[in-house]
Amino acid sequence: MEKLKVISGFMFIISMAFIIYPMIFNTADWIVYAICIVFIPIAILSFGFLSMAKGKKEEEEDKRKEPFIGY
């Protein structure tokens, strides 16, 4: 889980930087479209991974007490 947090946090920071870049600098239209098509979904996905990786305290205690045995 710690590796997931680090990677998704890094992806989120990079994608937000690429999303903000065309707002600051005057770039060509096709570059703006390419950035939007690629980096907005990556930002949403990595934010979702960050929120999933946190977990609640109660869930962490339950995971320690009962190992996952499948369904």
Automatic annotation (TrEMBL):
It comes from the Archaea. The chain crosses the membrane at residues 7-24, 30-50. Keywords: Membrane, Transmembrane, Transmembrane helix. This is Energy-converting hydrogenase A subunit I EhaI. It comes from Methanobacterium paludis (strain DSM 25820 / JCM 18151 / SWAN1).
